[in-house]
Amino acid sequence: MTKELPAVLLEEEDEQFRVSPGGWLGRGVVWALLAWLVLAVPSNFLSPFEIGVTDINGFSHAAIFAIVGLSLNVLIGYTGQISFGHQAFVGLGAFVSAYVVTDLGWEFWLAVPIAAGFGAIQAGVLGLISLRLTGLYFAVVTLAYGMFAQESLFGIAAITGGEAGKAAPRPIGFESGYAYYYLCLAFVVLVLWLDWRLMKTKSGRAMQALRENPRVASSYGINVKAFTLLAFAVSGVFAGIAGSLLAHADEVIVPVEFNFQLALLFVLMTVVGGLRNRAGVVLGSVFFAFLGSGKLVEWFGLVGFVEGVIGLPKEFVALVIGPILLLLTLTAFPGGIGQQIAPVKMWLLGHRFDMHAGEVNEVEVTDVRA
């Protein structure tokens, strides 16, 4: 039997590794295939599939869910705060954006930053509460806030339009579902870049230190209160952007959409995707977006089995499969989808293919190790 090389030797071996021209050609083909799947297939360009108007809206929702996942990853992944009220952040952003465009008559491009600002404000308020409560206690507070928003805040007819909902027209030039999908993709790229830049700064590293141990972080001169509030504000900004995009994707937004089921779906897709792994969070969010809408069940031809044999609405399949995937993540694959795709991801970036790349031993949330 061969012994495994120490990590240091493996890193040195990887640094000495050079990709051959054939290797770069293979990687280029895979990159081109990924670009075709994301950019060409949804618009029916050079594609054997036919994506209709209804389906393209599902792709837009998947992109928006990716932004929500990145937003929640800032809280759970970077700072270790569990939120079960994230649908309230997204919902407020949606209704603020719809109100600004429909009632005030302002442009969509002004509505998005305004919605992001409101998201930062409400997240900052919850951040103030988190300075005194942590772990499950804070999770209960976020759950209560989500229920409050659902039952009271979103019931203000002057803002939300009541049960009839609020109209949210799409911006000029992006009225078609195909054009709006590319707009959502552009915002996904923007949020990914902002998140990446943040984690490269001292502020980003300070937020990650809070997850490990706030007391130790404080002993190193990190302002725990300030950086906790910063994390909540950033998460709220991302959630507000996602809410604004969601409102104009549907064109009519109703309060009933932002319920606890949606909040639970947000948590599942983020954790299963892989905490602190942007690629994993994005893929997990896209997967649960299609699963939660019932699109995956339709595409695989399982509607008759799910609704006829099992007697379960196709929209509820995600809440059945999600907890199973969560258990697998906690027990067998702590890094989630991000851990599973890490070998391929590193290979695409020019590293040696390693089946153990991105291996995670445990799921970390605050001072609890699962």
Descriptive report:
- It is a single chain.
- With 370 residues, the protein is an all-alpha fold.
- The protein has a domain of 239 residues.
- It has 17 helices and four strands.
- It has a two-stranded antiparallel ribbon.
- A hairpin with a 2-residue loop joins strand 3 and strand 4.
- Helix 4 runs antiparallel to helix 5 and helix 13 crosses helix 17.
- It is globular.
- 40% of the residues are buried.
Features:
disordered N terminus; 370 residues; 17 helices; mainly alpha; disordered C terminus; globular; two-stranded antiparallel sheet
Q: Provide the low-confidence segments as ranges.
A: 1-5, 366-370
Terminal residue distance: 32 Å
Helix content: 55-70%
Total helical segments? 17
How large a portion of the residues is in β-strands, by DSSP E? under 5%
Strand order of the largest sheet: 1-2
Shape: globular
How would a textbook summarize the main sheet?
2 strands, antiparallel
How many β-strands, per DSSP? 4
Computed Rg: 21 Å
What is the SS-derived class? mainly alpha
Order of helices and strands: HHHHHHHEHHHHEHHHHHHEE
Task: Produce the secondary structure layout.
Blueprint (H helix, E strand, L loop, with lengths): L6 H10 L4 H20 L12 H27 L6 H17 L5 H23 L4 H17 L5 H4 L5 E2 L9 H23 L2 H11 L1 H6 L4 H27 L1 E2 L6 H14 L4 H16 L1 H5 L3 H8 L6 H15 L4 H13 L15 E2 L2 E2 L1
Antiparallel strand pairs: 1-2, 3-4
